[in-house]
């Protein structure tokens, strides 16, 4: 049996960790010898001063937002990374554990450990994470954009329109959805080559991007097909937008014959439970009719019938 | 939603926590109907609803709160907001005045930054260090690394329900909320308040100093300032009985 040393052989002053006790007003009432060393302040200076003296302003906010709420409800708080200010003004990263006294919850016991060595590792991890985060964001942007026109792609258009649907329901608003198809696009490609075809798409993409405001959606849905969605007061309110789409087509340059477009429209009534598919289909049927009737026009499906929209 | 009563209190938690921060106050609120919620990205909220752009500004959180009030079809409720939620609540109340009758701000601050002619309490570098501290405190949570790396919890399969625990907050959302909270200046909002406001100020609050509470009081068109002899920034937790009593007398309940 090892011999049990005398109790006074050991003292909290010998532990390589700072130990503090604070009262209700957050004044330091106890500090061990290591606290004076680690915090770079004589013990009699620590005693009676506020805990805030040893914390950086950011660490104070963190304490007020996380540590004290936790102490007030749970009675303890583990492994919090904070920054302390040493007597010389130097800052030092620390790991803090704290708990309240079982008999007097206003008394808080703190143990403060140095975290300077793990700080370097942490910094490396954080900078890798930040880099990954930036890459993920730019990938996300790439994955949602059509690189030829700069508009959102089909997947992203669908997602945004679904979002618009729920927002419109909350605001009791009607949504207009417009499907646009470039007339005789195959002939443009066949006659002039794909470069000219791409140029037409690019010009239209730029015009469309300028036309939509915040919360309005313009996307490239497929080859020569574009989709638009916007909250609308009513059918009348969309006429200028529709007219601008046709005007955008006629402004396209670099193509031997005038570029025209066909458009199919559908208006989704507020709180109608209609999903993206439910509003896409009637707009698509209206577009098909616009094509069948000779192109360069807009048709709208309303109450099951397809009627001209101009 | 808890309790029964003619008057509804909407309790809006502050930065760093979730609705459980109200649990010490709740027992003192008999006779009120209480609405509790977690902001998107905090506590038990569905993190998939978190949007890096929307929630980069307090307005995004105000819209969330507005949607809750709309879903519950609240009319003439009392909004009780802690810290930054005082401002989020004020935005919500200005946007939909009919939903509220009055507002209680617990330790409010419209701006934490020291700016010319205004002493918010902190320099920009302090607040940047805070954002860094948030990072350091969440790095260790291995299971949180996936959404943290993608940074896009909103529509990825990686997003998950947050564990239910006190102040459980996703690191990415916490950082975004911190930036929205601490690097913004919403002093101009105060004079646009349309409801009577009770401002509860802690006598010794390092985060929102008494001078900040006074500024809030002076800028609001109709307000009452009550300074509670207390330490710290969580009056509703450290002095729940006094806070409840002041809310009661303010709402005449």
Report on the architecture of this protein:
The complex is a heterodimer of chains A (about 300) and B (about 250). Chain A is an alpha+beta fold and about 300 residues long. Chain A is built from nine helices and eleven strands. In chain A, the strands form two sheets. Chain A has a six-stranded mixed sheet with strand order 7-8-6-9-10-11, sandwiched between helices. The longest helix of chain A has 29 residues, at about 115-145. Chain A is elongated. Chain B is an alpha/beta fold and about 250 residues long. Chain B contains nine helices and eight strands. Chain B has helices spanning about 60-70, 85-95, 125-140, 145-150, 170-180, 185-190, 210-220, 235-240, 240-250, and strands spanning about 5-10, 30-35, 75-80, 100-105, 115, 120, 195-205, 225-230. In chain B, the strands form two sheets. In chain B, strands 2-1-3-4-7-8 form a six-stranded parallel sheet, with helices on both faces. A two-stranded antiparallel sheet of chain B has the order 5-6. In chain B, a hairpin with a 2-residue loop joins β5 and β6. In chain B, α1 crosses α2 and α3 (about 125-140) packs antiparallel against α5 (about 170-180). Chain B starts with 6 loop residues before the first strand and ends with a helix. The chains are: A alpha+beta (about 300), B alpha/beta (about 250). The interface between A and B is large, with 37 and 45 residues.
List the uncertain runs of chain B.
139-168
Considering DSSP H and I runs of 4 or more, what fraction of the residues of chain B is helical? 25-40%
Chain oligomer state: heterodimer
**N-to-C span of chain A:** 100 Å
Helix content of chain A: 40-55%
Point out poorly predicted stretches of chain A.
none
Question: What is the number of helical segments of chain B per DSSP (H or I, 4+ residues)?
Answer: 9
- DSSP summary, beta strand count of chain B: 8
Secondary-structure-based class of chain A equals: alpha+beta
Residue-averaged pLDDT of chain A, rounded? 90
Shape of chain B: globular
